[in-house]
Every structure is written in C-alpha cells, then in structure tokens.
Amino acid sequence: MQLDRLITFHKTLGDKTRLRIIALLNSGPLHGQAIAGKLALTPATISHHLTKLRDCGLVYERREKNSVYYHLDEKKLLQMSQAVIKMGDETMDKQLVTIEEKNKVLQNFLTTDGKIKTLPAQRKKKLIILDYLARKLEKGRLYEEKEVNEFIKQFHEDFATIRREFIMCYFMTRENNKYEMNPEEMWKIGYSN
C-alpha cells in the first residue's frame, strides 16, 4: 500500500463529521438531504464531506430517479484500516545485515570521497547504500523535491532512481512534493552484531 494513500485515508477520517457520516452509511445508503437532516448540518457541508470521502474511495454514489444515494464501501474501509498493520508487517520484513557486510558493501560501492561508484543490483546491497545516504539527511526536516535531488546528485547522477527507492523502501515519505525522513524502524534494513 502506498504510504501517501494511507496518510490521505487517515487524514480524511480525522474529522468528526466524516466519521459520523460513515457511521450513518454503515446502516445503509442515504441521500445527501437525509444525511444533512440526521446530522443537523447544511446540505453544502454534507456535500463537502461526502466529496472528501468519495475522493478517498470510502463512499460511492448511485442515482435513483432524482436522488443520489451514497453507499459506504465497506471492503475499501476494511482494506485501508488494515493497511497500517500490513505496513508494519512489511517493514518487519527487513534485510538484516552484519556490520562486516555493511562495511564490505560500502568499501566496494563507494569511492574514497564517499560517492557511489554504481548502484548495486542486489537488493540487500542497494539497501545498504540507501541507508548510507539516508543517514546523511536531517530527521524531522521537510525537504523540497529539488533539495532531495541536489543532495543525491552529490553522491550519484541517477537521483530519480534513488529518490524513488527512498520512498519504496520507507526511508522517506512524500506528500505534496515534500519529503521527510521516516523513523529508522520503518526502513527496510536493519543491522545485527
């Protein structure tokens, strides 16, 4: 599951009105006016929240004569709700390497001034190189995409591939073209003694 979609899902659910709409739709489909009446809110407010829920894929609409009925996509709700646990399982599927393995890979794939000679094809070795780079970035800081590219270019010319790997291997999270380091516990690599 892409981390950005998961974040959007949880942000969408982080609203009391939207949670109340989901609770109502759990009992069956309703049209916008009925939802507005039950929640004592204006139709415009309900329309706004339903749009957010629809964009996230949690509700869908069906037209019946002159009314549009909103349905809860229970399967999608369950899938997205369980994705956090799945993501935890995925991040627990770490490549464990010893310090000796790490040092050998760094010696083989880095120049004496710390630049990357070539990106390793083998996943475990690639993760060691990504880890090497990620540790040079500042935790808690939001980076513009251009800043991430410039940072990577200091070490290797293929900044697009490395930036994509940072996201895919959970070293970083991207939202609205802003990048931020994830906690090390999420990274796809771990070291054993």
Automatic annotation (TrEMBL):
Residues 1-92 form the HTH arsR-type domain. Coiled coil: none annotated. InterPro entries: ArsR-like_HTH, DUF2087, HTH_ArsR_DNA-bd_dom, HTH_MetalResp_TranReg, WH-like_DNA-bd_sf, WH_DNA-bd_sf. This is Metalloregulator ArsR/SmtB family transcription factor. The keyword Transcription applies. CDD domains: HTH_ARSR. SUPFAM superfamilies: Winged helix' DNA-binding domain. NCBIfam families: HTH_metalloreg (NF033788). It comes from the Bacteria. One of its GO terms (molecular function) is DNA binding. Keywords: DNA-binding, Transcription, Transcription regulation. The lineage of its organism: Bacteria, Bacillati, Bacillota, Bacilli, Bacillales.
